[in-house]
Amino acid sequence: MVHYAHSHYALRAVGTFGSGALDNWSAGLRLADPTAEVPDSTNYAAFLAAIAPAIETFHKTVEVRAGNSAWLKELHFARVGTDGKYNPTTQVTTIHTYATPFSGVGISVLPWNSACVTSLKTAFPRGIASNGRMYWPATSMPLNAATGRMQSVDMPAYALAVKAMIEAINTAAAAQLAAGVRVAVVGADGKSGSARSAKVTSIRIDDRLDTIERRENDQPVNTWTQGIA
Predict the structure, then answer these.
(1) Enclosing domain of residue 64
(2) Handedness of CA 143, 144, 150, 156 (dihedral sign)
(3) Does residue 209 sit within a domain?
């Protein structure tokens, strides 16, 4: 069984694809204090309300290219114990619902499982808690016709938008949860029993658009068979 070094928080942005909610998407981050257990606070709702504008701004940033098919509707937050389960196990996830759901920017021309990946880097160069990832919809991301990659002009602005969102989350976490809580990478090795967490110190964006298999598998498929004489 996997055991984490300390309890931590799980934060997820949750939305749907298509105005008719044809499919769901979510993107997550972890928050932790690398040196201590995180408190089971009564301020979860206030924390989500504090970070909601920053996450909305990120989703609506032009260079993020979430697309007009990707609607953001809720933020979910819960405390996770060292056993990887919600702690206490009876805890109900705290949910912040946006008063008016909103889509990303740009006309969606890519499959709904298309996403831009942000690599979350920590002070550990390798091993447990050295790297994490955040996948965000990118259904309107323009691609370079010659290389099939993202336009280089979009990448610095995308990275700055992620930076602004994480810094806003860190500020609210320190005020509403505990002073040492930050966006972090949390890791554990079930075989060796090693575990640690570390705050995110930098982010990296590359120009290769990713495909999220679990989103692809969730999407309904319509088929057509044509017989051949």
Answers:
(1) 8-218
(2) negative
(3) yes
Q: What is the pLDDT of residue 50?
A: 98
Has residue 200 been placed in a domain? yes
Tokens of 161: 């938008």
Residues 185-194, mean pLDDT to the nearest whole number: 78
Return the number of other C-beta atoms located less than 10 Å from residue 141's C-beta: 24
Residue 48 is assigned to a structural domain of this protein: yes
The residue among 155, 116, 156, 120 whose CA lies nearest residue 136 is 116
DSSP state of 39: P
Task: Judge contact between 176 and 50, C-beta under 8 A.
Answer: yes
pLDDT band, very low/low/confident/very high, at 220 (cuts 50, 70, 90): low
Task: Determine, yes or no, domain membership for 190.
Answer: yes
Report d(CA 157, CA 155) in Å as an integer: 5
> How many folded domains does the chain comprise?
1
pLDDT at 222 over 70: no
Both tokens assigned to 171: 């500020």
Q: Hey, is 7 helix, strand or coil?
A: coil
Query: pLDDT tens digit string along 84-118?
Result: 887 665 567 899 999 999 999 999 999 888 999 99
Q: In this structure, which amino acid lies at residue 111? A: P
Which residue, 72, 89, 69, is CA-closest to 81? Answer: 89
Q: Could you give the CA distance from residue 212 to residue 112 in angstroms, rounded to a whole number?
A: 9
Tokens of 59: 């989703």
Provide the whole-model pTM: 0.90
Q: Are 8 and 38 in contact (CB under 8 A)?
A: yes
